[in-house]
Amino acid sequence: MTVPVKNADHLTNVYVNDAAVQYVYNSKTGELIFGIPLKAKAKSVVRLVSDNGEIEYKDVAIIPAGKITTRIWTGPKALSWNGATVELPIGWMNAIPEGASAKFVVNYTGATDGATTKWYDGHWNENIIFPESDQSDPEHKVPLPVGGKSVELTITPEIIEHCKEFSDWGSNGLFHGQNAIIESVDLVVEVPQEINLVGGDIFMLNDASQPMAFPVALSWSDDACKFRIMRNGANDLQSMNLKAGKSKLIFYKQGTGQCQVNEPNWNWNETAADWGGSAATVELVLTERLIDCITGKISDGWGGTAFCVQGEGLTITKVTILP
Asked: What's the rounded Cα separation, in Å, for the pair 144 and 153?
């Protein structure tokens, strides 16, 4: 989220619904850029804390966005190897929440033959290498195609961590080059959004043709209180490119107990539980073997069932997946 602020040099913390969030201040535009927790409500509380007090904004309208584009540098600047350097604002990496993907979009004009850029960290080390860098070039420069308008550069987790380490000289992400004019640089952050699994994704365990009705009080013994999640249903889980260790199944619930997720042949299971009763959800981070159930590598041999779900103590009101 981006908001205009004054005296941001006094800012020490930003909170959304009492959760500390990462932020960066663009001194050229006077804008404060801060992350939004994935579960932030449409009306949230934002609190800015400075070294001389704090101010709180209630009922802030937050509209979740899967992709956020922020202009972090504005030119123009004609590239050269001597002096004409683009310096990105310190702390841009703090605007990338955990689990998000990000890229730079470098907008340029006037490219002629040999147009290129070379990137450095905040200590002028020559080791910012993007997947799009010229891997055959010992200096790993980034070409700017003649006739083009922009290049997109994927920001890997390794680049983020490296830039955090070398950020004490006042800038981070530097590049110079030749034969083009850099007009601007955008930071594009894409945060995965929860996808509701609907009637075409979840069916009764004892009747695979009947969509499951929610809420449902999970049971060990009553098959009418168990359900199957399909890999090839309305949302087609198997085409989502889900990632082990990152993607999640999220069960919205009431009560205290456990949700047991079984592979389609009931040979093994993984469990998500809340024994305190205060959580709004129980979550299951997808493992490699759970991913295998979604892709069909593990199959019941006759249908599209990915998981069979049962449990105790929990009333499930909704099921979502976070890619």
From this structure: 11
